[in-house]
Known about the structure:
Blueprint lengths: L8 E5 L11 E8 L2 H8 L2 H5 L2 E4 L5 E2 L4 E8 L4 E6 L4 E7 L4 H10 L24 E2 L2 E2 L4 E8 L5 E5 H4 L16 E11 L11 H7 L8 H15 L7 E5 L5 E2 L1 H10 L6 E3 L2 E3 L2 H7 L6 E2 L4 E3 L6 E4 L5 H19 L8 E2 L1
Parallel strand pairs: 2-5, 3-5, 4-20
Antiparallel strand pairs: 1-2, 6-7, 7-12, 8-9, 10-11, 10-12, 13-19, 14-16, 15-16, 17-18, 18-19
Enzyme class: oxidoreductase
Pathway: Cell wall biogenesis; peptidoglycan biosynthesis
Subcellular location: Cytoplasm
Amino acid sequence: MSSASPALQHDVSLRAYNTFGIDAKARLFAPFRSAEELRALLQLPEVQQAPKLVLGGGSNLLFTQDFDGVVLKNEIRGLETLDEQADGTMLVRAGAGESWHGLVEYTLAQGLSGIENLSLIPGTVGAAPLQNIGAYGVELKDAFEYLEAVEISSGQLRRFSREECGFGYRESVFKGPLRGQYIVTGVVLRLHRRPQANTSYGAIRTTLEEMGVTEEPTPQQVSQAVISIRRSKLPDPAQIGNAGSFFKNPEVSQAKFDALKAQFPELPGYPVPGGVKVPAGWLIEQCGWKGHRAGEGRYGVHDRQALVLVNHGGATGHEVRALAEEIIASVRERFGIELHPEVNIM
């Protein structure tokens, strides 16, 4: 402990704070449970002078080296419903340190609909708007109202509307122009009292039929279907180190897609504004990577979902990154498509 800064811990292993289970160290480490505690930390000279990394659930990170700075662990909790709106929607506020899936469960318990398709996504509420999380035809921005964040340089609390967040596919201003300038403390969503089921994407409809749901599904049933699909495809980080989907699904022009489709008739694609989204997992699997193990079996590609890189135990971040680069090169060579990591590589 530093005598000048008792809140700061020194040389802390981050193995328990990242779902890949990579054993990197932070030179300085401090949790915070409120905006006030965060402001106090940001005023410490050691923190002001050091590079900063904000950690939530650590589910979207790959450490390739020790972090020579301060890791600020966001532990701001709290779930509450705010005022019901004139259009029958309800605002729900969540502390940035809450688990995302915990928020989904809370909204379902309140009889609210809008984020059930985002069930079981790992990580915290505060990380969700940074990359505009999405799954099964729904993105965070669809339910987003505003967020609150502390400006690192001034300690001031600022509110960001949906428009100000500049949401895109796995993107926001916090990954672009405002990267490293703000720390999210709370998120407010606008949800519906009347269910608006979205079952058109992926295997949701088929899974609901297998569950015996033949009429319009409830939000809880859609959530159960999504959870079932995710558990069948994605490894539990508590069992196998991973960060979920390692790569973004690439988007290509319609002309490029048509040319590839002529060459690879089985190529799947989903129309998006300006082109077609192609499943990265399919591309990776076609290149023979699914189930691949390297480093004497210590790491590799998941055997049920090629989009997921896994640490079976003892892998370094360097090794996982090198594997990712090999995969990117092979997809580029075969399909002429460039994959980009969804995971933040430190």
